């Protein structure tokens, strides 16, 4: 069975609650495309107002991060139960910005992935290499390692429902997109890695996104690739262009 594309916006640290409502209302009519799962991953404080604004539309509201403990003395963190109680179904985990600025590691990402599954939240698990790693030719090994650690103790049944976002760090927010062939090479290697760790059925069912300067002009070519099942979109998800990205196939 063909995998359904999943196109997610990652708002990062943008939009106040009232701005979030305005943006959801603006984009609602533009992102209607039944062929695609559409997710807006928004700052924690925007989740509830964005959810209200998205009611009756095809937009699913997701989170940008989550902690791996259930509750307790973890000032500033947000728990999985807080997300599920608000109706959240997807959470971005291990984004390179979380790794760079907030010291997240493959090990903490793995703990979060396990916790997300425990609570029925679908993780969008990010991986990707630096420009130096690409130039050194070690990027595929690096990404395979990231994936293997992120999926430790994850069952095949769970893994089949996960989303992986391949985001080369050199392409994030830089305007420099990976070519569709570069993106496909890595997304194909990720699927092969899932096949090796699990089995064919899991590899065929897991969805793999590309992220890094996706825009209305390059989305169709990227998403046409066999192993690219959609995108994780930063900057372009904050404007009307996101509608064109979601409707890449129209
Ligand atoms: O999560 C999204 C990515 O970091 C891509 O961001 P960008 O589309 O602004 O390059």
From TrEMBL:
One of its GO terms (cellular component) is cytosol. Its main location: cytoplasm. It comes from the Bacteria. GO terms for biological process: gluconeogenesis; glyceraldehyde-3-phosphate biosynthetic process; glycerol catabolic process; glycolytic process. It catalyses: D-glyceraldehyde 3-phosphate = dihydroxyacetone phosphate. The active site is at 95 (electrophile), 167 (proton acceptor). Substrate binds at residues 10-12, 173, 213, 234-235. Keywords: Cytoplasm, Gluconeogenesis, Glycolysis, Isomerase. Homodimer. Belongs to the triosephosphate isomerase family. This is Triosephosphate isomerase.
């Amino acid at each position: 069975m063909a995998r359904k594309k999943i196109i997610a916006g990652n708002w990062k640290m943008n939009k106040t609650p009232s701005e979030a409502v305005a943006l959801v209302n603006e984009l609602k009519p533009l992102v209607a495309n039944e062929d695609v799962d559409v997710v807006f991953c928004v700052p924690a404080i925007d989740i509830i107002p964005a959810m209200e604004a998205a009611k009756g539309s095809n937009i699913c509201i997701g989170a940008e991060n989550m902690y791996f403990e259930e509750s307790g003395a973890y000032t500033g963190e947000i728990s999985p139960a807080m997300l599920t109680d608000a109706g959240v179904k997807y959470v971005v985990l291990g984004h390179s910005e979380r790794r760079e600025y907030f010291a997240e590691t493959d090990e903490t990402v793995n703990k979060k992935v396990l916790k997300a599954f425990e609570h029925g939240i679908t993780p969008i698990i990010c991986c990707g290499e630096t420009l130096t790693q690409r130039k050194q030719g070690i990027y595929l090994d690096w990404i395979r390692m990231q994936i293997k650690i992120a999926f430790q103790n994850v069952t095949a049944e769970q893994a089949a429902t996960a989303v992986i976002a391949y985001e080369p760090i050199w392409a994030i927010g830089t305007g420099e997109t990976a070519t569709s062939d570069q993106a496909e090479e890595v997304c194909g290697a990720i699927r092969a890695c899932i096949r090796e760790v699990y089995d064919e059925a899991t590899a065929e069912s897991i969805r793999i996104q590309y992220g890094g300067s996706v825009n209305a002009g390059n989305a169709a070519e990227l998403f046409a690739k066999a192993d690219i099942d959609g995108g994780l979109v930063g900057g372009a998800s904050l404007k009307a262009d996101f509608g064109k990205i979601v409707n890449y196939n129209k």
